[in-house]
Amino acid sequence: MTIDEILSAAKKEKMTFLSEPEKNKCLEFMAECLLEDADSILKENEFDIENAKGRISDVMLDRLRLTKTRIEDMADGIRKVADLPDPTGRILEEIKREDELLIEKVSVPLGVVAIIYESRPNVTSDAASLAIKSGNVCILRSGKDALRSAAAIVSALKKGLKRAGVSENRILLIEDPTHESANRLMKANDTVDLLIPRGGASLINACIANATVPCIQTGTGICHIYVDESADEDMALKIIENAKTSRPSVCNAEEVLIVNAKIAESFLPKLKELLADKRAKNNLTPVKFVCDERAYAIIGGQRAQKGDFDTEFLDYILAVKIVDTVDEAIEHIEKHSTRHSDGIITNSEAIADKFTKCVDSSAVYVNASTRFTDGGEFGLGCEMGISTQKLHARGPMGLKELTTYKYIVKGNGHIR
């Protein structure tokens, strides 16, 4: 299908409404068909992997790679969405006037939700399942690195829709990876009700700059963790190891460490031993430290250059800064954060309270890894993305964030 044919099909399809049992039936068959087609999906994914080698980093290749376990997790995510309550048709407010005119505020689907994303094949099934359950039509536009994987996944999901007796046009994939297709989607005001870019800063900024349809700013995660002078250092080491190394290519991975000067000389060498020296001895990729002058004097590494504290590395790289107070840490985060996920490690309730009140991010953590900012971890089944803006959604976007509302007014010959 051409992009114009896709937009036309989506516009027509959004006028068809599914009941909750119909939605759940679709999702169950989508999960079933995804597992049935696992071998063909993996074959197409291997083509994408081979084609991307040498052009993207190893950590980004890992993000692109599918395995049977990851496909099983995708199917499990679809089933979790099926188990969630239907977000549409809920009466949010009810006003009954003295003249008995009844005004109901009712949740409804947005209509057509479009997603432009990069080398994350699992986004394909996450977005499709959330769109189906929330009653929306989904237009997917994958990056070229994951296009064959996305096409294979969509083929399986469409089989599920067909098996459930529902139009396959509720899930539509744009297979043209050119800028022209993305630009057409960004300006499809007569069809697209919400555009969600999910990827790096360049993709998100391009959508924000060029889209004339409503657009959500998502994803870019320059996530900070501040280690306060009162912190339990062993706890801090465990949290930072998880936040930085468990999966550095994702948006909720830690990119910046801020350490209070009173513990920096004792804490930073322990951190270097854990994340660099020990990992190298165990044949794991060591973390590289990009340090301000005070941190460099303690652990060496690489001196921070202009822009390093504004970089989403998506790699085994950690920027390190030393501050004298929590106020200085908050000030640095305010200046450099992307409003995604920022955290503090402290044993002081007063300091934690100040930090959570003053840090203006979609998720603020106390004594926990930033890696929890995820739709599945937040009980949403999966997510469309992490919104780093405030309107209309903030943080992990699940079913409720894919709905709007309208007023239904019921009278009996009422006139004004």
Care to describe what's here?
With 416 residues, the protein is an alpha/beta fold. The chain is built from 14 helices and 16 strands. The chain has helices at residues 3-13, 20-36, 38-52, 58-64, 68-83, 121-133, 147-163, 179-186, 201-210, 233-245, 261-281, 293-299, 326-336, 349-358; strands spanning 91-96, 102-109, 112-117, 137-142, 171-174, 194-198, 223-227, 254-260, 288-291, 302-303, 317-323, 341-345, 363-366, 386-387, 395-396, 403-410. A seven-stranded parallel beta sheet has the order 10-9-11-8-7-12-13, with helices on both faces. β4, α7 (147-163) and β5 form a beta-alpha-beta unit. α2 runs antiparallel to α5 (68-83), α2 crosses α7 and α5 (68-83) packs parallel to α6. It is globular, with a radius of gyration of 23 Å. The model has no long low-confidence stretch (mean pLDDT 96).
List the defining traits of the structure above.
single chain; four-stranded parallel sheet; 416 residues; 16 strands; 42% helix; seven-stranded parallel sheet
Quick recap:
The chain is α/β, with parallel strands linked by helices and 416 residues long.
Structural class per helix/strand content? Answer: alpha/beta
Determine the strand fraction and express it as a percent band: 15-25%
- Rounded mean pLDDT is 96
| Poorly predicted ranges | none
Instruction: Say how many strands there are.
Output: 16
